[in-house]
Amino acid sequence: MSTHHHFNYVEFPATDLAAMKKFYGNAFGWTFQDWGDTYVAIQGAGVDGGFDAEAGARKPSNQGALVILYSDDLVASEKAVIDAGGKISVPAFDFPGGRRFHFTDPSGNELGVWAAPKE
Fold this sequence. Notes:
By secondary structure, this protein is α/β, with parallel strands linked by helices. It has helices spanning 17-28, 74-83, and strands spanning 9-13, 31-34, 39-43, 48-52, 67-70, 87-95, 98-104, 110-115. The mean pLDDT is 94.
């Protein structure tokens, strides 16, 4: 199967790499590979990615594209986000096809988490 024009990498602006690694590691079990002082690669998230803390790089935002993670247990994922220090920006809501919530990470990026309806 070709990967031509498939999503390949997601990069998040970061203001504090240690806080980002701690948050995402605790909330979602991701692991990381440091690449110098300003870049960390994300491992175990389903799509390759990284945190970029390079001075002058893009800034964290809740105004751009919304990256949405999938969860087998939305309630447990929401608790994990809160316990890891994330802030719920949009409480869980139903939508056609499931239920989701949005959160902000330690740098201020907004992401979502969704789950399919319970059968």
